[in-house]
Design a protein that fits this description.
The structure is a single chain. This protein is α/β, with parallel strands linked by helices. The chain is 27% helix and 23% strand. The strands form two sheets. Strands 2-1-3-4 form a four-stranded parallel beta sheet, with helices on both faces. It has a three-stranded antiparallel beta sheet with strand order 5-6-7, covered by helices on one side. The longest helix is centred in the middle third of the chain and has 14 residues. The chain is elongated. The two termini are 12 Å apart.
Length: 149
């Protein structure tokens, strides 16, 4: 999932960010991260006031004594469908089925128009390798972010 790639890019040693992940559905899997050291995950109970808990977690990240205190706070990622009751949570990115963030593969040039179907089928594996190595573009109303493939 691209949410993990985004977190890895932000928390990588050369990036220097710390990120708060709010996981109200308890589906976030930290073992999928390459750089989990500066990712702080909040897994609230079902009846919790997420607005209050997220403010307390942000305060801890900004002022607390922890291993990420030297990193710049990037923001909050809400890991879950935004139609879940999340009133008052100020998230920079929402990962879910109905999010406002568009994620697409970087454009890869197509086959030549002069290529026959037989030639295209013969080069299929090569083409799939090129697509797999292409990066991702993450876009929203406020800008875009590039991720390596």
């Amino acid at each position: 999932m691209l949410g993990y790639a985004l977190l890895d890019a932000l928390a990588a040693p050369d990036a220097g960010y710390v990120v708060l992940v709010i996981d109200p559905l308890h589906r976030f899997d930290a073992t999928r991260l390459r750089w989990p050291q500066h990712i702080h995950v909040l897994r609230p109970p079902p009846d919790a006031d997420l607005a209050v808990l997220s403010c307390q977690a942000r305060e801890y990240i900004l002022l607390g004594q922890h291993a990420s205190r030297h990193c710049e706070f990037w923001g909050t990622l809400l890991f879950g469908d935004p139609v879940t009751p999340t009133t008052g949570v100020r998230a920079n990115v929402t990962i879910g089925r109905h999010g406002w963030l568009r994620v697409e593969r970087e454009r890869v040039a197509g086959f030549s128009e002069r290529l026959t179907i037989e030639e295209a089928l013969a080069r299929r594996e090569e083409r799939l390798g090129i697509v797999d190595q292409s990066g991702w573009t993450v876009e929203c109303a406020w800008g875009s972010f590039q991720l390596a493939g």
